[in-house]
Amino acid sequence: MLKKTVWFASAIVGVLIVMYNYVGREPEPPIVNEPKIIAHRGANDRFNESTITAYEIAANDGADSLEIDLRMTEDQTLVAMHDENIDRTTNGLGEVSDYSLEELKEFQTVEVFGNERATERVPTLREIIETFTDSQHYYIETRLEDGELVMEEALIGLLNEYDLIAKELVTIQSFSQQSLEKVHELAPDIPLTLLYSKGNFDLSEAKSVDYPIIGIESSDVNMKNVNALHRQGKEVHVYFNDEATQKEEQERVKALHVDGFFTDDIEYTKELLDRK
Ligand code: G3P
Ligand code: CA
Asked: The whole model's pTM is what?
């Protein structure tokens, strides 16, 4: 009986130690002093997402970084576009990769969040960089196309052409480790963010991979995950899939001391971070 009690007490103490180490009682301090405000697809709440105007509004708002999703046209030009096809964000239909740049430029982007301003064309990455040159930080997302590495060499070539890597004005993010590895091979100095899709966050893997930043959807962000990554010296950048809960989620993850917000409402995030 005594043996059983001792074993049980030891087990409880063990569990408490593990819980203390893993969960912690307090959020770990942020890795960066001020969390970064990353304009998700530009100021997409006030103009067509991923357009030059949306990025101009974000830059004027003082966002720390412009988030840009990449797709590649049939004739190998990198353009700012989130979706594989142009159906949702332009007045056209079909896959980006089936259009030459000239053909893609015939379409207009369309409003997706109720703005009433005139539309504009899908921008190339080069056009975005020529607009902002070294006045902004670019947070660029790569992806595989049909399982293939197609954009990394063109991307790094373009960034080097404008000297943006040497000036430390770029972070590359991807859900694909294969893509991040290729980027690292081509440009070892670029900070890399490994993204996890909603519901698929893997803490053990995220702790062990050799990337300095981990990008997590807000519903997978909790104190255990943030603290564990901070203890590994990694920044945690959070994105938000649910527009309806984004404000409350931003408030919640702020209290966990996350290091970056991929925000769809720059003004709100600025006000939130200014709050004591
Ligand atoms: O890059 C962070 C976030 O943008 C990832 O999700 O689908 O909006 O690109 P998504
Ligand atoms: Ca993205």
From this structure: 0.91
